Amino acid sequence: MCAAPAIDSGGGGVSPEESEQSLDLSTYAHRQLIGYLGLLLPVLLYGLAGVRGTAELPAWKLLDSVSAYYYSGAVAVFVGVLFGLGFFLLTYQGYSDSRADRRLGRFAALCAFAIAIFPTGSAPDHIPRPEWWGGAAGSIHYIAAALLFTSFAVFSLWLFRRTDVPEGEPLPPDKRFGNRVYAVCGTVIIACILWAGASRIRPHPIFWPETIALWAFALSWLVKGRAHHTLASAARRVKATVQRAGRSSSAS
Q1: Domain assignment of residue 108, given as a range
Q2: Which of 137, 144, 206, 247 could covalently link to 118 via disulfide, CB atoms 3.0 to 4.6 Å apart?
Q3: 50 assigned to some structural domain
Q4: Is residue 129 part of a domain?
C-alpha cells in the first residue's frame, strides 16, 4: 500500500492503522473470503472426489495435481471455487491510492477463469480427454496457472508489505507481524512454483507443491484480512456466552 503519510501530532493525529483503514477500499471480509477459498480448495477436492469415487478413479485416491480433479467427481468444486475466487479477485479494490492492487487482482481473476475453462491435459489414467480439448487448451492452462501463482507471490512480497509509515520509523506491531507472514508466504509460493516446474520436467506429481502454494496464498490473504482478529473476537464471544450460561445455571 502506498498511502498518504501518517500524522501523529500527539492528540488529534492519525495513527498508521487509521490512515491505512481510511484508504482501504476492500473489506476485511472480502480478503478473508479469498483466503478461505484458497485454503479449502485442495481439501474440498480430495474429500468430494473421495465421496464420489468412480470406476476410473477409486475413492480417496490422491491425484497427481490439483487440476486433475477436473476429471473427478469434484469437478463442480474445482470449477466453482475457481470462478468464485476469480470474481472476488475481479472485484478486489485494495487501496484507493494504489492502482496496482486492482490491476493485479483483475489479472489474477482472468488467470483463475482460464484455469477453470481450459482444463489440464494431464488427465488421470484411463480417463479420456474431452473431445474439444487440444494442445492449445493445455498450454493456456499451464501458463494461466503459473501466472496466477506468480501474482499471488507479488501480492505477498510487494503489495501487502507496502506501508505509509515514513522510512526509519517503527512499524506498528500488527504491520510487523503481517510483513513477516507475507514475506514467508511469498517465498514459499515462489519455491513451490519452482518445485512444480521441476516436477513437470521429470515428471512427478505436483499436487503437494500446488497445495502448499495455495495454503501460503490463503494464509497471506487471511492475515491481510485480519482473520486472526476475527477468530479471536469470536472465541471471546463464545467464552463470554458460556460463562454467562454457567452463571445462570449456578444461580438457578
Answers
A1: 22-164+172-226
A2: 137
A3: yes
A4: yes
Dihedral sign of CA atoms 119, 121, 125, 131 in order: positive
The answer to whether 51 and 59 have CB atoms below 8 angstroms apart is yes
> Residue 67 is placed in which grid cell?
487440476
Query: What backbone phi and psi angles, to 5 degrees, belong to 173?
Result: -55, -45
CA nearest to 39, candidates 211, 209, 204 = 211
The reported pLDDT for the residue numbered 251 is 67
pTM, to two decimals: 0.81
Burial of 115 (0-12, 13-18, 19+ CB in 10 A): buried
Confidence of residue 166 (pLDDT cuts 50, 70, 90): confident
Q: Cα 196 vs. chain centroid, distance in angstroms?
A: 18
Average pLDDT over residues 40-50: 95
- Sequence length of the chain is 252
Nearest to 223 by CA among 167, 169, 176, 168: 176
Q: Cα separation of 159 and 173, whole Å? A: 18
pLDDT digits (tens, 9 = 90+) for 1-16: 444 333 333 334 444 4
Three state DSSP letters for the chain: CCCCCCCCCCCCCCCHHHHHHHHECCCHHHHHHHHHHHHHHHHHHHHHHHHCCCCCCCCCCCCCCCHHHHHCCCHHHHHHHHHHHHHHHHCCCCECCCHHHHHHHHHHHHHHHHHHHCCCCCCCCCCCCCCCCCHHHHHHHHHHHHHHHHHHHHHHHCHHHCCCCCCCCCCCHHHHHHHHHHHHHHHHHHHHHHHHHHHHHCCCCCHHHHHHHHHHHHHHHHHHCCHHHHHHHHHHHHHHHHHHHHHHHHHC
2 located within any domain: no
- Quote the pLDDT of residue 13: 44
